[in-house]
Design goal:
The protein is globular. It has 302 residues and is α/β, with parallel strands linked by helices. Strands 1-10-9-8-5-4-3-2 form an 8-stranded parallel sheet. The protein has a two-stranded antiparallel ribbon with strand order 6-7. Helix 2 packs across helix 3. The structure holds 3-hydroxy-3-methylglutaryl-coenzyme A (HMG) and magnesium ion (MG). The site of 3-hydroxy-3-methylglutaryl-coenzyme A has 25 residues, from helix 1, helix 4, helix 5 and strand 5.
């Protein structure tokens, strides 16, 4: 078992986290969150998405947020783009990376982006070409890689198919997403192995929502497989408005605590990360959804 010595975390809180919040969060708060995350040492931040404001009103201020960020050298800023319209709006805001997102389940594809899996890939094809022509990196997410809120369990072959299609249209990097947090380590391993048929180990990431409390176990399983990139969300924010009942991504604080405890480097300052999580949790009027953050905050008070 050769564990990675260093792990890269992609912070998805400002996007995956906040997209699911019903109460409007102002652009200034989102910008401040990004600033605090980069000050804590996060070097990859998913800032916002260029989707329809009718579908996801919380992300309607995408361009304002991108324009308001003071960019820190060495940090990559990513945004979601579901189609060419989203890409063109996104490209004007100079992201370092775009994320195209498909689903391993047909039903979720329809609910989330209003088209079939095959149609989504055809929408992404020109987006990927345009991004690459402009020197913008391209990442992808495969939703419902172990389970779907509408179809139930999802077979690894479905993940393999979407990974192959992503590869064919030139996507450089694939995130295997447990959108509704139902996965357990062996099922997640099988989904990862399916993606690894088409991508190298350094081009695959785990994206685990923590609905059933399995995300850390799933992360550990991936580490044991040699996977070293994960999407996480500060204060455990998040969920997808089209995946009812799903909670947030695994909290960045919990994953950093796990990794540092195992001697694995992240470049992240856990104390400053906890501060960032407390900042956004205060803005939302709740406690961070992170066991490690709450333990550290309680310790500070003592
Ligand atoms: P549609 O209605 O099929 O699109 O939506 P359309 O092309 O037919 O256009 C209809 C209207 O939408 C038009 O406006 C377009 O201008 C507008 P109207 O004429 O009615 O005023 N439109 C857009 N506006 C802004 N930006 C765009 C855009 N495209 C069309 N890019 C669409 C298709 C994909 C846009 C829609 O279904 C949508 O926005 N869905 C939201 C999906 C979403 O954001 N989901 C959450 C993120 S994914 C996620 O969380 C999963 C992930 O975390 C991994 C995991 O956990 O699984 C990544
Ligand atoms: Mg997600």
């Amino acid at each position: 078992m050769a564990l990675p010595t260093r792990v890269k975390l992609v912070e998805v809180g400002p996007r995956d986290g906040l997209q699911n919040e019903k109460q409007p969060v102002g652009a200034a708060t989102k910008i401040e969150l990004v600033h605090r995350l980069q000050a804590a040492g996060l070097t990859e931040i998913e800032v916002t998405s260029f989707v329809s404001p009718k579908w996801v009103p919380q992300m309607a201020d995408n361009a304002e947020v991108m324009a308001g960020i003071t960019r820190k050298p060495g940090v990559r800023y990513a945004v979601l783009t579901p189609n060419m319209q989203g890409y063109l709006a996104a490209a004007a805001t100079r992201p370092d990376e775009i994320v195209v997102f498909a689903s391993a389940s047909e039903a979720f594809s329809q609910k989330n982006i209003n088209c079939s899996i095959a149609q989504s890939i055809e929408r992404f094809r020109p987006v990927v070409q345009a991004a690459q022509a402009q020197g913008i990196a391209v990442r992808s997410a495969i939703s419902c890689a172990v389970g779907c809120p509408y179809e139930g369990e999802v077979a690894p072959e479905r993940v393999e198919l979407v990974a192959r299609l992503m590869r064919e249209i030139g996507v450089e990097y694939v995130g295997v997403a447990d959108t509704i947090g139902v996965g357990t380590p062996l099922k997640v391993q099988r989904a990862m192995e399916a993606a690894l048929k088409h991508y190298d180990i350094g081009a695959v990431a785990g994206h685990f929502h923590d609905t059933y409390g399995q995300a850390l176990a799933n992360t550990l399983r991936c580490l044991e497989m040699g996977i070293w990139q994960f999407d996480t969300s500060v204060a455990g924010l998040g969920g997808c408005p089209y995946a009812k009942g799903a909670t947030g991504n695994v909290a960045t604080e919990d994953v950093v605590y796990l990794l540092h405890g195992m001697g694995i480097e992240t470049g992240i300052d856990l104390d400053r990360l906890v501060d960032a999580g407390q900042f956004i949790s205060d803005a939302l009027g709740r406690k961070p959804q992170s066991r490690a953050a709450n333990a550290l905050l309680a310790k500070r008070e003592r």
